[in-house]
Request: fold
Amino acid sequence: MGKKLLLKNDHIPYIHKLSVYREHGGYSVLEKTLKTMTPDAVVEEVKKSGLRGRGGAGFPTGLKWSFLAKPEGVARYLVCNADESEPGTFKDRYLMERHPHLLIEGMIAASFALGANTSYIYIRGEYFYVARILEQAVAEAYEAGILGQNILGTGYNLDLHVQIGAGAYICGEETALLESLEGKRGNPRIKPPFPAIEGLYGCPTVVNNVETIMAVVPILELSGDEYAKIGLGKSAGTKLISASGHINNPGVYEIEMGITVEDFIYSQEYCGGIKGGRKLKAVVAGGSSVPILPADLILKTANGEPRLMTYESLGEGGFISGTMMGSGGFIVMDEDTSIVKNLYTFARFYHHESCGQCSPCREGTGWMEKIIGKILDGHGTLQDIDLLWDIQSKIEGKTICPLGEAAAWPVAAAIRHFRSEFEEYVTKPDSIKDIKHYYRLQN
Amino acid sequence: MPIVTIDDIKIEVPEGTSILQAARMIGGDIVPPTMCYYSSLKTSGGYCRTCIVKVEQGSAKDPRPIPKPVASCRTTVMDGMVVRNITSPENLEARAGVVEFLLLNHPLDCPVCDQAGECHLQDLSYENGKSETRYEFPRREFDPIDIGDKIKLHMNRCILCYRCVKVADQITDGRCHGVINRGEAAEISTYIEQAIDNDFSGNVIDVCPVGALTDKTFRFKSRVWYTKPLDAHRDCKKCSGKVRLWYQGEEVLRVTARKDEWGEVEKNEAGNADWICNECRFDKKEAKDWTIDGPTKVDRHSVISANHYEGLKMIKADTLRMMGAKPHGIKVELGEGALDPNNK
Ligand SMILES: Cc1cc2nc3c(=O)[nH]c(=O)nc-3n(C[C@H](O)[C@H](O)[C@H](O)COP(=O)(O)O)c2cc1C
Ligand code: SF4
Ligand code: FES
Reply:
């Protein structure tokens, strides 16, 4: 069994209840932290741990915390990004559903480190039932003196609010999230200024993913140095992977970073191999926005080394032959999967979720969707494939927020690695119609 | 004060100046085009991406290039920054992409659009676009709506620059005008189709870079290029009273604010825009209401000064030829006055 940090108590019934959580050592790390450490010391431990943001970008958390501006007399905020909407990613839901108190414990410790006295959990609208669970847990914590004034008798005060969004992917982008939290239209802000300087209500703010915040608890329990020993190199610690697609055991897994991709896909402990013993065709390793890789490149890097589940190894080869860890949404596709059809689904999503502020994303995402749809319907031309390539290149890097890139990368990667499949749709539309899944209108 | 180099021209500018403002201080064809930025509207800019430039060197301290193109209107210059606009073929190509996106769903109904002849999107497409479209799908459509009895909104033509939203927010009180819906379906609207009832609402017409917001009192009366602009003023209690009258024969067909060479409402000595009130704009259409200051010099707009484009095309062709002849990264020595718009 691999090392479990966040899911170590996953097997315990009713662990979402405060009493059960405390019986199993819950909030003891927090108590020790508040009573024996200074806020700066907590930041220092997180820095030493090598923890990197689990929301997608993998930015070192300790460093991010140390950028937080600390002007005299101005409030600071910690905001937990629980908007989880990247297709293929569902680990935050699992974590919050089953371990709400671990999130609260992490929120209090992190807020203490940052000097925040008000913090928010911003959760996507579709997770309303998870929000209920969180709200109940928050209420329990207030009652037990773990939230509010004078937490656990230490003199530290924190108010924690759970705020439900209206269900927009773009509100996961941290500045759109802050706009939405302020009650405005969820449009990403133009940066700079960054949230660390001007965030929520114009005050210095840190936005972190659910998993990132939870990981603070084991870091403080073990010490930063010990945590850094788990995992591999700069990919310290464990990572939650949402595994879906054509595998025998879809679900949420906590892995120690450094295991091989092959092991993750084929071992019984994790995905358990491809369904029906079919062959692996491709994997989207980090949520829908990261480049798709064909089987040979996801299992081995371009130089023939086994690919590992780490930020570095997944990224090896850049976008030519590599991909990204992203948010850990691991989507496995077997040999019968249509890459074009899958791409169409992704393209529809990004088109639908564009906020519409900047022209390349507002106009380009819809255009790409239409062209892919046309190819899928057997009406495409070879020029359409080149046109798609050109459109994605004109979106990438020219937008306000990374949603533009998130929309462009999957298109680029699908054409880069599976161009022949696009060509087949274009040149042999009739042959495609015979294969059920190849033809959108028949299933 | 920071020194920035834009298209091989050095200029020293005050701390906090944006790349775009620095380029405007230099002037001429190296100035990036803008569709959403408006210097007298706070937080404007950053949306349309037409003003993108390539930053070859971030600053003297950190000379690394910025990996992605930046919006020049929202990027502050650093000392030692090196920027390329029209001397980077790559940048021109990226901008052509943005222009294509802006035109993608645009109805191209210039023949029946009151803005034709003074439209920034027309200018932009002539200067930076391609002559054909690669878009073959039906365009997005909205019905035109009335915003009050004086203003018409053609959402089909809108490029979502957010300028009118900022006018409503910053210049009129009790804002009920904003953006609803998302992505491609986003549209400018007023709260439950409420008319904007405010003395300064007419300014949304002047800031609109395209024909999305037009003056109903001028609607279909004439083409802009058949009218003759004169600068005039009157004693007005609500606004500066400084306007531009658009004559046809003896008749004043339209009143607008005065605009500068960037198409923005002119600023007074204090640096504030001379917005005009609805009374001056809509109700004072007699020559006797006004004191004439003199004729207006029009120097830039599409149909009105067509020669401008010919000159610009030649300069760009020359630049590209020179760039092509030399390995990337070597400075292009432009002859003296090569970038002077008057030197055609
Ligand atoms: C379009 C878009 C959607 C995003 N959605 C999420 C999300 O649902 N959850 C999340 O944690 N981060 C999301 N992010 C990343 C956040 O902007 C931000 O980087 C992250 O919350 C930082 O937390 P971390 O440092 O703990 O990873 C999104 C980013 C973009 C551009
Ligand atoms: S890239 Fe897309 S989602 Fe992001 S700000 Fe621009 S239009 Fe909005
Ligand atoms: S003018 Fe700079 S982005 Fe629109």
Q: What stands out?
A: Chain B touches chain A at residues 45-50, 52, 67-69, 71, 74, 94, 97-98, 100-102, 104-105, 134-135, 137, 159-160, 162, 178-179, 181-186 (CB under 8 Å). The first strand of chain B starts at residue 3 and ends at 6.
